[in-house]
Design brief:
CATH topology of chain B: ABC transporter involved in vitamin B12 uptake, BtuC
Number of domains of chain B: 1
Number of strands of chain A: 2
Structural class of chain A: mainly alpha
Largest sheet of chain B: 2 strands, antiparallel
CATH class of chain B: Mainly Alpha
Shape of chain A: globular
Largest sheet of chain A: 2 strands, antiparallel
Helix content of chain B: over 70%
Number of helices of chain A: 15
Number of helices of chain B: 11
Strand content of chain B: under 5%
Oligomer: heterodimer
Strand content of chain A: under 5%
Radius of gyration of chain B: 19 Å
Distance between the termini of chain A: 26 Å
Chain lengths: 345, 290
C-alpha cells in the first residue's frame, strides 16, 4: 500500500462536479418516467428490470464501499460476510419471532454488529494481528456466523433460507416492506449516497492520515503519537456497521436471505474482489466494481440462460486474477491514473 | 446407560483422531507453501476438489483401478500446483503479500465455477463401499482408518524428503532466510516451483483420502477449506509441527462438539477456540511468548 495517490484530486476541476450533478439528477428523476411508454414494443413496465438491477448495484456498492473504508489501509478483512449476515438475520429474526419492527430491530442488529466487530477487532489490533493473520482470523469469523446459521436451522431455516413474515398488503412503513420498487429505489439511492459521503468524510479526516501512516509502519506511527489500536478500531466498527446495514437493506428488498447470499467466506471474498476489480483507492471504485460484477452476471444470464451455470463466475474469477496481476488499482483507479498521466503530458 | 454413553464418547474421540490425520495432511501442504514462498493459497481446497473429481472420473467412470487413478490424480494436482505458482504467484511475488492471497482467491472462484461449468452441481460418489471395522463394542469406518494411516505415511515421507534430500534441505534453508539463500547460490525460482509441485501433490493425496469418505461437488472445498487455514494459523503459519498438533486439537473439538450437539456447533466451537487462542498466542500455539 505504498503508492496511495490522490488520483481523484483537483486535476479534474469543476467539470467533475457538473458531471456528478447530472448523474445525480438522472438517478433521481429516472423512476418518475412514464412506465406505460411502449419503449420496447410492449406496454409493460419497461423500467422494472433496469431498476431492479440498479437497486442491487446500489445496495452492493454500499457494502463494497464500506469494506474499502478499511481495505484501502491494508486492513484486509475476510469477515465482512459475517457483518452482513448478523445485520440481515438479526433484523429478520427479531421481526419474525419477537414482532419487533425493523425501526427498532435495525438499531439492535447494528449494535450487535458493532459489538462483534469490537470483540474481534480489539484483541486483533491490541496484539498486532496484521496481514495474513488478520485476514484469516476474520475469515474464521465469517465461517462462525455461517455455521451458527446452519446449526440453528430450526429458527433460521439453515441453507434453505429465511423469509421475513409479510405484513399487511405488502406496503408498510411499519414493517419497511414495499412491494413498490420505486420506494426502495430511493431508499437504496440515499443509502448509497450516504455511504459515499462517509467515504469522502473519512478521506478528508485526520484519521485517514493516521491510518495511512499505520499501514506504512505501525511502530513508527505509534512512536509519533498515533493511538494505533483506537484508530484501527474506529474504522473497523464504522465499516462493519455500514456493511451490516447493507445486509439489512438487501434482506428488506429481496425479502429472502440465505447463508449463501449474505454470509460466509464466499460473500466475504466477493466483497473483497468487487472492490479490487473496481478500484480500492478511489471513491467510486467499489461502485464501479459492483456495476462490473452485477452487469457481467446479469448479461451472461440473459444471453446464455441458466444452461451454463457457473460461466459468469468462471469469467469473473479469471478477470480477478488478471486484475490483481496487471491492474492492482482496479478499473477506475487505472483509468484515473491514465487520465492524470495524460494530462500531465 | 452410563457405560454406553462412554463408549460413544470414546468412539467420537477416536473418530476425531482419525479425522485429524486428514486435516493434518491438508494443512501440511498449505504450511509448506507458506513457509517457503510466504503465500497463502486460498484456493488450496479447490485444488483438492479437482483431485477428488479426477479420481472420481478415472475410477468410477473410466474404470481405472483405484491405485493408478489415485497416482494420476496426485500427478494432476502436482501439475496444478506448478501452474498456480508459474502463472499466478511468480508474476506478483514482489507485490504486497495480501495481493497474492487475493489472486489465489480469484483462482478459488475460477476453479469452483469452472468445475460447476464442466460437471454441474450434483454430488458424485465414488461408489466404493469400504467395510466398517468392529473392535469390541467400538465401530470405526475403514475409510477413516485408511485415511489416517496414509496421512501419517505421507507426513513421514515429507519429513524425510525435507531432511534427507538436497532439494529438501534447500527448501528448509530458503524458508529460514529468503534473501541470504539466493546469495548462497540456491536457485530460489526452482525451489519455489518444486515446493508448489510438492504442495499440489499433497493436495492430491488428501483428495484421495477425502474422496473415500465424502461426495464430491464443486463447493466441497468450502466445507473443509476454512478449517484448513485455521489449522495452519493456529499452528503458526509455516510451522509444520505446530500445524500437525493444531489439526488434532481442532478435529477433537469438532468431533466432541458434534457428539454433544450438532456437527455445526462443533465447527463453531473450533473456530471460536481458534479466535481466542489467536489473541493469547498470535504467532501460533508453539510460539514462545514474547
Amino acid at each position: 500500500m505504498t503508492s496511495v495517490t490522490l488520483v481523484n484530486g483537483s486535476k479534474w476541476g469543476e467539470r467533475r462536479y457538473l458531471a456528478g450533478a447530472i448523474v445525480a439528477l438522472v438517478l433521481i428523476v429516472l423512476p418518475t418516467l412514464n412506465r406505460e411508454l411502449p419503449v420496447f414494443g410492449t406496454g409493460a413496465d419497461w423500467l422494472a428490470y433496469p431498476m431492479h438491477i440498479m437497486v442491487l448495484i446500489m445496495i452492493w456498492s454500499l457494502a463494497y464501499t464500506s469494506w474499502s473504508l478499511m481495505g484501502r489501509f491494508g486492513l484486509v478483512s475476510l469477515g465482512h460476510g459475517a457483518f452482513m449476515g448478523i445485520g440481515a438475520y438479526g433484523t429478520a429474526l427479531l421481526w419474525n419471532y419477537a414482532g419487533l419492527t425493523p425501526w427498532i430491530g435495525i438499531p439492535i442488529s447494528l449494535a450487535l454488529v458493532a459489538a462483534v466487530a469490537f470483540i474481534v477487532g480489539y484483541p486483533c489490533f491490541r496484539f498486532r494481528i496484521v496481514g495474513h493473520y488478520f485476514a484469516l482470523v476474520t475469515l474464521a469469523l465469517s465461517e462462525i456466523v455461517r455455521q451458527v446459521i446452519m446449526a440453528t436451522r430450526d429458527y433460521t431455516g439453515g441453507s434453505l433460507g429465511f423469509t421475513p413474515t409479510p405484513y399487511g398488503d405488502g406496503f408498510s412503513l411499519y414493517a419497511l416492506q414495499f412491494s413498490d420498487r420505486t420506494v426502495f429505489y430511493y431508499v437504496a439511492l440515499a443509502s448509497w449516497a450516504f455511504g459515499l459521503w462517509i467515504w469522502w468524510r473519512v478521506d478528508r479526516s485526520m484519521d485517514r492520515f493516521a491510518l495511512e501512516a499505520i499501514s506504512e509502519d505501525e511502530d513508527a506511527s505509534a512512536a509519533a503519537g498515533i493511538w494505533v489500536t483506537r484508530e484501527k478500531l474506529k474504522i473497523t466498527i464504522l465499516s462493519a456497521v455500514m456493511t451490516g446495514f447493507a445486509g439489512i437493506l438487501y434482506m428488506q428488498y429481496q425479502q429472502f436471505i440465505s447463508p449463501d447470499t449474505v454470509s460466509g467466506i464466499a460473500i466475504s471474498l466477493q466483497i473483497v474482489f468487487a472492490v479490487v476489480a473496481g478500484g480500492i483507492y478511489v471513491m467510486f471504485g467499489p461502485t464501479v466494481g459492483a456495476i462490473i460484477t452485477i452487469l457481467l452476471a446479469e448479461s451472461l444470464r440473459v444471453a446464455i440462460g441458466v444452461s451454463m451455470v457457473g460461466l459468469d463466475t468462471t469469467i469473473y474469477g479469471i478477470l480477478l486474477v488478471l486484475f490483481i496481476i496487471f491492474l492492482p488499482k482496479g478499473v477506475l483507479g487505472g483509468i484515473l491514473d491514465w487520465l492524470s498521466r495524460r494530462k500531465a503530458g | 446407560m452410563e457405560q454406553i454413553f462412554d463408549i460413544y464418547l470414546l468412539e467420537a474421540l477416536i473418530n476425531g483422531l482419525l479425522f485429524g490425520g486428514v486435516l493434518a495432511l491438508l494443512s501440511l501442504g498449505l504450511n509448506l507453501i507458506f513457509g517457503v514462498i510466504d503465500v497463502v493459497w486460498i484456493c488450496y481446497a479447490e485444488i483438492v476438489m479437482f483431485g477428488m473429481y479426477a479420481i472420481y472420473w478415472l475410477h468410477a467412470v473410466y474404470g481405472i483401478p483405484i491405485v493408478p487413478a489415485a497416482l494420476l490424480a496426485i500427478a494432476l494436482t502436482g501439475a496444478m500446483g506448478f501452474l498456480v505458482h508459474y502463472l499466478v504467484i511468480s508474476p506478483i511475488l514482489g507485490s504486497p503479500p495480501i495481493n497474492q492471497l487475493l489472486a489465489t482467491g480469484g483462482l478459488l472462484f475460477f476453479l469452483q465455477s469452472f468445475a460447476t461449468l464442466l460437471w454441474g452441481i450434483e454430488f458424485r460418489n465414488l461408489g466404493l463401499r469400504l467395510p466398517v471395522l468392529q473392535w469390541g463394542e467400538l465401530y470405526f469406518s475403514y475409510a477413516r482408518l485408511l485415511a489416517f494411516g496414509i496421512a501419517v505415511i505421507g507426513m513421514i515421507a515429507i519429513y524425510l524428503f525435507l531432511t534427507r534430500t538436497y532439494i529438501g534441505t534447500a527448501i528448509r534453508a530458503i524458508s529460514q532466510d529468503r534473501e541470504i539463500m539466493t546469495l548462497m547460490g540456491v536457485d530460489s525460482r526452482r525451489v519455489y516451483l518444486v515446493t508448489s509441485v510438492v504442495g499440489g501433490s499433497l493436495a492430491g493425496l488428501a483428495a484421495c483420502l477425502l474422496v473415500l469418505q465424502y461426495d464430491v461437488h464443486p463447493f466441497v472445498g468450502l466445507s473443509f477449506g476454512p478449517i484448513t487455514f485455521v489449522i495452519c494459523v493456529l499452528g503458526g503459519l509455516g510451522n509444520m509441527i505446530g500445524g500437525f498438533i493444531a489439526a488434532f486439537i481442532l478435529s477433537e473439538i469438532i468431533s466432541i462438539g458434534g457428539f454433544y450437539a450438532e456437527l455445526e456447533w462443533g465447527y463453531v466451537l473450533a473456530f471460536a477456540v481458534f479466535i481466542v487462542v489467536m489473541f493469547i498466542r498470535p504467532e501460533g500455539i508453539l510460539s514462545k511468548k514474547s
